[in-house]
């Protein structure tokens, strides 16, 4: 039951993150929203994390390169790139592209972690890649010939690569290292790294519009997807392994299809269904081959 909850809830919480970021894109610039998210999360987590920070501090110091290597793609870049991408593409597209994460975990695992791929897995990955292209090209293959890609979709796809790297690197963290403390350290690091980008955004004239709606949006992204979802996902990696944790991301477009229709008035198109079906089919083929 604990594993099932850890696998099911993060995608629901993260789908809300995409909905909020897309809905508030005119009032909350992406870097400002990212900084607000992690600042609220840090303030929320710090009182609970302090005992774990003191206990695990020697490990952080001894393995600081690993802490940075995990935190930059998983905390700093993933969230920020997703917010930037949602300035230019729909929440539906963004959440469908989350289904590429299991594909990317298999590919990156084979390329850089020495995880062998069977022929059937390669075939499954090829099918999934076709699905990714269908979504990014909006079902119009002429765009591929003309090299016309949606910039928002490409940015979000880059965010998915970052999350796959994060998922694989998290397996190197010993189980006895408290995940709450680790996340707190990585959030503090992220806030420092985002300051130059925030300065550039403000200098360009993009500043938040302060309303009850923007404050509520900041509170949501700062607590629910940042703290609750991330800790649950870390727990899912520990309980179920990185592959199954990655596959749980497939729940996100299911949640997202409902939420984006209700709250954003977005409509799913045939290319969404075809692309998602191809990605999911490829994952099924590859995962079954991996068990054989």
UniProtKB/TrEMBL annotation:
Keywords: Membrane, Transmembrane, Transmembrane helix. The chain crosses the membrane at residues 31-50, 62-83, 95-112, 119-137, 149-169, 181-203, 209-232, 244-264, 270-289. Residues 3-136, 151-287 form the EamA domain. Belongs to the EamA transporter family. The lineage of its organism: Bacteria, Pseudomonadati, Pseudomonadota, Alphaproteobacteria, Rhodobacterales. It comes from the Bacteria. This is DMT family transporter. It is found in: Membrane. GO terms for cellular component: membrane. The keyword Transmembrane helix applies. It is a multi-pass membrane protein.
